[in-house]
Amino acid sequence: xxxxxxxxxxxxxxxxxxxxxxxxxxxxxxxxxxxKVDALMRQMTLDEKLGQMSQLFWDKTVSxxxxxxxxxxxxxxxxxxxxxxxxxxxxxxxxxLHIPLLIGFDVVHGFHTIFPVGLAQxxxxxxxxxxxxxxxxxxxxxxSGVNWAFSPMVDIARDARWGRIVEGSxxxxxxxxxxxxxxxxxxxxxxxxxxxxxxxxxxxxxxxGAPDGGRDYDSVYxxxxxxxxxxxxxxxxxxxxxxxxxxSGYIDVNDVPASGNSFLLQDILRKDWGYKGFVVSDAWAxxxxxxxxxxxxxxxxxxxxxxxxxxxxxxxxxxxQNLPKLLTxxxxxxxxxxDAVRPLLKAKFELGLFEHPYVDEAKAKAAIxxxxxxxxxxxxxxxxxxxxxxxGNLLPLSKKLSSIAVIGPLAxxxxxxxxxxxxxxxxxxxxxxxxxxxxxxxxxxxxxxAEGAKIGRTDLAFxxxxxxxPDTDRKSDPAxxxxxxxxxxxxxxxxxxGETDKxxxxxxxxxxxxxxxxxxxxxxxxxxxxxxxILLMINGRPxxxxxxxTHIPAILEAWFPGTQGGKAVADLLFGxxxxxxxxxxxxxxxxxxxxxxxxxxxxQVHEDSPKFASYYWDGPQAPLYRFGYGLSYTTFAYAxxxxxxxxxxxxxxxxxxxxxxxxxxxxxxxTVQLYTHQQWGSxxxxxxxxxxxxxxxxxxxxxxxxxxxLTGSDVSFWSPETRRRATEDSTYDVWVGGSSAAxxxxxxxxxxxxxxxxx
Length: 759
Hints:
By secondary structure, this protein is of the alpha/beta class. Among the domains are: 1-105 and 333-369, no CATH class; 371-593, Glycoside hydrolase family 3 C-terminal domain (Rossmann fold), CATH 3.40.50; 636-750, Immunoglobulin-like. Residues 1-22, 458-467 and 754-759 have low confidence and may be disordered. It has 23 helices and 26 strands.
């Protein structure tokens, strides 16, 4: 029997009800899979091909007829293992060609166990930890029958008003790239089809994080230099890590909708990068090419989406309803349809779905209640927190306090701790901040609580802090007055303020970064008591805490910390853990500074000409907290920056070493960061760019020499002059330290032996 006959025979036999997870014991061989795909496609009708290109939102009232006819390739938002097995049984046992379904879901920062949100994970600066987190999420999802995550979101975001900044890794293309690769590895494992792993999908291609005004879904205008040097690198890193799927975006990119944008999906993704996976649209994005005023009607939208390179339509059925007529009219070809279908089938083979389409429902229950995942959630929440201020070493607190007041609208909440995209998390299992503190201290310390103020997405009646009189204004609010009295009777106060989960995420952009409602009045009123106050932030973006940064002695950013957030925060507050997080974003003083980011270009003004400097006349130019910033309960000193050579060629590497010493009294982790600046070349380059980082652990008094290998390719960039990526001859600055404000400086040159084609 030849290979062709063997492949056809396999597809015509029912797969059998195999009670095991979709997985392969070893990576599949591409040539074998390609042969299977070709053999299968030769048997498929047009409707069956278009079915593979169609994904529907799960609705239990929908008939199974389309699955039986082979006219559906995927469901999304179906998570019940029993129902997943049932629809897979229909697809595998009752359809003509027995093609299993892809089951997709927004596994963004957890499945049942909810981990810290994406921005918080990036604040850990710990890609190994992030990989473990996504592997745990993949384990729970795959055990339940979900084999495809609509994650990671790798969009760079420089504007804190944008709600979806909470999902990504912040503003920096290098940190974003490292995190993108880690998340892909976590979801997919060593290869696509690895046991207990699932298909990852990097989104949203491309530029989605740069909408006008920080407004979700709004238009994006990006020159090529920004697109190539800032917004595309995390996608390229995800592809290099093997991501099997890319999601196209909703937005216009330079006036062409991303889901109909051939420049993005064909020229860059497939031609320049050679991407072989498939592209799925965001929900209804192909159909909504009509809403952009780009497509004439749904038929035109289907044509544009297909030709641009969108393999699968999410939700709208615009392909299956319109491509047959377009094919008949000669506006699309069967070859173009085949090219769209082939990667979809290949992904199903790579995932092992043809061999193992079903899951063991008993194992699913065990996977989503794995105690190791809860411990990982606690550890990741600890390592994601960023200590922003700690005057007088107020933190960590003593466990021997006689009384502590926990105050604020987010102190005794559960669902809000999970953040957005936590559909299957059980809020009842979430440990609140109040419960975390009470459990940590037991009965030996009196822990009192006051809500102090309401908070909600519609509670946007902001008070003007410039005319606020805490002593007078609070007396008109009984809840604030009660909070003040609670604070007066305590040794120390933990204020828990920020945002609810509904105030960050998709369609959750903000025109103001102020603390909503009366939170600012509450904070000032409690601070006026003179009691030591710790401000604990629960949020998904930088908020305006400029007043607090000079009036509140300790500020701890916990983000949306997830299921075990209360325990993690208590570990940090009372010294059972030492904060080690660093900001993955620049923290503005006011909304008037945004968009703000550390890796901006130099201007025409030299330092000796302050009159013509780029600045605001009514406030500081500097941010409140810089990218890469984060304190610890110990201190670190940097010394002896050394470069192995003052000059290298473009193909050579340079060793950069630095000595780091723990100069405090506690063990701690420090993220050592290396930044560069190209002093001259074919284009103006950012004042600093993160190129490498290492996270190290040091005991009190311990020193370590940290080694970095910096290559010529590390300082390459896409030049608007040459219109390609290259390393240029130039002089380069190097800084190493604990944030983007590092002062330890060195310098080297890149000089080729002979001029190259890129000059």
